[in-house]
Design goal:
There is one protein chain. This protein is α/β, with parallel strands linked by helices and 246 residues long. It is built from 7 helices and 10 strands. It has 2 domains: 82 residues, no CATH class; 160 residues, Rossmann fold. α2 links the parallel β6 and β7. α2 packs across α7 and α4 packs parallel to α5.
């Protein structure tokens, strides 16, 4: 594949520096903003695949001459590089019940590596096709092993397990998001639980997705939680830090 990355964006442009897409012989993953700019980059990338060229640069003014009226200027860097798991943040979804499965499905097309985690094989078996899943009797170990910048969403069938996982996540200071399904009452109970263990409950988001809607249908909770999660991950990436515990 050829990676096409925006390395400079001046004036009015459809995407900022850092945006990228991956071009294969018959497929494209991601976008640098669409329109003629993107068509030109795809054509150039596929020419590289045919010729074996390893690297190229494109400096494109977004004016009438290419059929775009943004008025800015974009510099693209093209190289032989396919997407890897390291290109996207990890999202650990604990609990393969109705909401957990819906959230994993909502995250599937987004630029994250989402994994649905549970100790119940029968629940994981109901996840949609293509969802990454992990069966484990020790879910807390997954939090300890998570990469810095990862996100943790807790939606298990057991409040005690929820509290254990949330405390484990908040014991770290390098996660970008820690959220738990629940109510104001559950939040208050967890606050007492965590303070008894010397853990600050303030960074925990609970209820999840509540800033958008009070609708309790699993797919709706999943949609708003995915939006909340992506907003936090985007902020963490742009600030080059992990704001969950900052």
């Amino acid at each position: 594949m050829i990676r096409v990355r925006v390395i400079s964006a001046r004036g009015s442009t459809p995407r900022d520096a850092g945006a990228e897409m991956f071009v294969g012989p018959t497929s494209v993953e991601g976008t640098i903003g669409g329109g003629q700019l993107e068509y030109m980059a795809i054509d150039r990338a596929r020419a590289m695949l045919v010729s074996g060229e390893a690297e190229a640069r494109m400096d494109i003014p977004l004016g009438p001459e290419i059929g775009q009226c943004c008025g800015g200027r974009v510099v693209l860097h093209l190289d032989c590089h396919g997407p890897t798991p390291e290109d996207h943040p990890d999202v650990l979804v604990f609990g393969a019940g109705h909401v957990g499965r819906a959230l994993a499905l909502a995250l599937q097309p987004l630029p994250v590596n989402a994994t649905l985690i549970d100790s119940r094989a029968e629940e994981l078996a109901q996840a949609a096709h293509g969802i990454a899943a992990k069966l484990t009797p020790l879910p807390e170990a997954e939090i300890r092993a998570a990469r810095p910048g990862s996100a943790v969403v807790i939606l298990t069938h057991d409040h005690a397990l929820d509290f254990l996982l949330a405390a484990e996540a908040l014991a770290r200071d390098d996660l970008s998001y820690v959220g738990m399904i629940g109510s104001a009452t559950k939040r208050a109970q967890f606050s007492r639980f965590s303070r008894e263990r010397g853990i600050d409950p303030a960074p925990l988001i609970c209820p999840i997705g509540a800033g958008f809607s009070v609708d309790k249908r699993p797919a709706v909770i999943a949609a708003f939680t995915a939006a909340e999660l992506i907003a936090r991950l985007t902020a963490a990436s742009s600030l080059n830090k992990y704001p969950c515990n900052s």
